[in-house]
Amino acid sequence: MLALQGAFAAHASIIESLGVATIEVRTKEQLQTVDALVMPGGESTTMSMLLERSGMLDPLRYRLNDGLAVLGTCAGMILLAVDVLDGRADQHSLGAIDLTVRRNGYGRQIASFEADLDIVGIDEPFHAVFIRAPVVERAGPGVEVLAMVDGQPVLCREGAVTVAAFHPELAGDDRLHRSWLADAGLISI
Predict the structure, then answer these.
(1) CATH number at residue 77
(2) pLDDT over 60 (residue 141)
(3) What percent of the chain has pLDDT over 90?
(4) Is the model's pLDDT at 14 over the cut of 60?
(5) Which residues pair with 55 in a beta bridge?
(6) DSSP secondary-structure letter at 162?
């Protein structure tokens, strides 16, 4: 769990319930020890600054380029995208998935919503919670769109990188985490 800021504890609880040990990653040394990483929701500009200040920004880029399996949710999606619209000039983008995303694209906190999603590879609808969620403005040709809301991609994958505009850790449903862990080779289903 990237544990600099955001909703990492809820993700850790789900992953541990699936039999996978977690650690809270706060240093570049800890980052080197993980087999996969969750980049949780939170505030993307704050997370960007904390990655830089902690000295983890370049080591994380290296691990991502080397194929580290990562699940980025909400702010994690923003940080992992190639292009970020409506971000601060000093906000970092890790460029790990060929997406252009717009921060808070669905609107402010009051515009938060829930939706039942049909997700590729998951048999029943998944109840998703969107809180100040990013909008995918563009998905590159190598990006697999796994779920949509009103014609907009909200769950995408490219290689070892999976991103969600929503908060799967708030759904009370471990299927998305289970699927991601299986894709990362950490569990079998």
Answers:
(1) 3.40.50.880
(2) yes
(3) 84
(4) yes
(5) none
(6) E
Catalytic residue among 74, 92, 156, 158: 74
Q: Which residue is catalytic, options 11, 156, 158, 167?
A: 167
The verdict on residue 82 lying in a domain is yes
Residue 111 predicted with pLDDT over 90: no
The whole-angstrom distance between residue 119's C-alpha and the CA centroid of its chain comes to 16
Active site residue 169: yes
Looking at the domain assignment, is residue 1 inside a domain?
no
Q: Which residues contact 32 (CB under 8 A, 6 or more apart)?
A: 59, 63
Q: Where are the beta strands (DSSP E) in 86-183?
A: 97-102, 113-117, 126-130, 135-139, 144-149, 152-158, 161-164
pLDDT at 132 over 60: yes
117 pLDDT band (50/70/90 cuts)? very high
Question: Is 156 annotated in the active site?
Answer: no
- DSSP string covering 60-100, please? HHHHHHTT-EEEEETHHHHHHEEEEES--TT------EEEE
Residue 189 forms part of a structural domain: no
Q: What's residue 184's pLDDT? A: 95
Q: Which domain holds residue 125?
A: 8-183
User: Looking at 11, 92, 158, 169, which residue is catalytic?
Assistant: 169
pLDDT confidence band for 164 (50 / 70 / 90): very high
